[in-house]
């Protein structure tokens, strides 16, 4: 067994930066980091699935990277719609693919292939695979005999909140067809929706994860904030392709 910890939608801002929906994201990121240090400092992978910063500059990405120094060598990141690709490529160059068109990753881990996709369309809230990732993704999954876990910011499914579902992955059908074609895709892990959700696309289990900051109210037709605590998600991956996952909420 090997453990992955996923955090998402940290929305970190610079010192004296704006609050997000009256929420201090610097304080929430600091609190999450302390919780990770206390409970998950030895996890085998820490994966951040987008919106690392909230419309902030390269210096905030650098601060983010330095704050997660205990996990260097085990850290993976992908962008969300509030991120900016070029600064991420400069700061995280040692842990992402050498690809000018994306911030993505490929990793082998305890008998699994881990794929991180860049779904950022700069200037848009909805997402899709950037650059030549469709061809790259198909090539990777075609060659993989191991079970595959895909990490992406925008979910390739609807989560039941009407306003959120208008801002998901654009190419839902193309992604679903890919999953159906390649049975080794077992797991799809997303952020973006600031809430816990689970469903399936053919044989693949799909999960979304609470934000480390503001939570969105599930099953809401219009934008609404939830009062539930921030959280993270853990995955215990087994070499035979099975896994267990749970959401952990930060204590009050």
Can you describe what's shown?
This protein has 252 residues and is of the alpha/beta class. It has a single domain (2-249), classed as Metallo-dependent phosphatases (Purple Acid Phosphatase, chain A, domain 2). Helices cover 23% and strands 25% of the residues. A 6-stranded mixed beta sheet has the order 4-5-6-7-9-8. Strands 3-2-1-12-13 form a 5-stranded mixed beta sheet, with no helix packed on it. A hairpin with an 8-residue loop joins strand 10 and strand 11 (225-226). The longest helix is centred in the N-terminal third of the chain and has 15 residues, at 25-39.
What is the CATH topology?
Purple Acid Phosphatase, chain A, domain 2
N-C termini distance: 30 Å
Secondary-structure arrangement, i.e. CATH architecture = 4-Layer Sandwich
What proportion of the residues is helical, as a percent range? 10-25%
Helix/strand-derived category reads: alpha/beta
Biggest β-sheet description = 6 strands, mixed
Overall outline: globular
Low-confidence stretches: none
Q: Helix tally?
A: 6
**Overall number of structural domains:** 1
* Element order: H for helix, E for strand: EHEHEHEEHEHHEEEEEEE
List keywords for this structure.
23% helix, 6-stranded mixed sheet, 25% strand, 13 strands, 6 helices, alpha/beta, globular, Purple Acid Phosphatase, chain A, domain 2, 252 residues, 5-stranded mixed sheet, single chain
